[in-house]
Design a protein that fits this description.
single chain, mainly alpha, rod-shaped
Length: 124
């Protein structure tokens, strides 16, 4: 029974996993101690980085960090389109307002164009 190959395989795997686990724990402790000691020496070191909280939540939930990047990019594009639409709307509104002001206050509109540097003449 001691030389049974079926019982030997799980024991070898368990031993390897224990060795791997202890090596991993040692490596994590080494990285943690080196990063904390370097941060204590120089608080503005290049090792200190800030990570977005959303990314950390994605990692905690086991979601691919690339998905976080995709969602942030989509949100940026969406927000950019909204701001672009607002800017275009304000530009259109300013042009319409200027046209109405020119028809109601032609003298002031002419003076404004001169101050602005436009060479347009007032519309009759």
């Amino acid at each position: 029974m001691l030389n049974d190959p079926e019982n030997a395989a799980p024991n070898i795997l368990e031993d390897e996993l224990v060795d791997y686990h202890s090596s991993l724990i040692n490596a994590i402790n080494l990285v943690a101690s080196s990063s904390s000691s370097s941060m204590e020496k120089d608080s503005s070191s290049s090792f200190h980085k800030e990570f977005p909280i959303g990314l950390i939540h994605y990692l905690d939930e086991g979601i691919n960090p690339d998905e976080y990047l995709r969602e942030v990019f989509r949100a940026c594009v969406r927000d950019n389109q909204m701001v672009k639409g607002r800017a275009e709307m304000l530009s259109t509104m300013a042009a319409k307002l200027q046209t109405k002001v020119e028809s109601v206050f032609p003298d002031e509109a002419q003076e404004y164009r001169q101050l602005k540097g436009d060479d347009k003449e007032t519309k009759p």
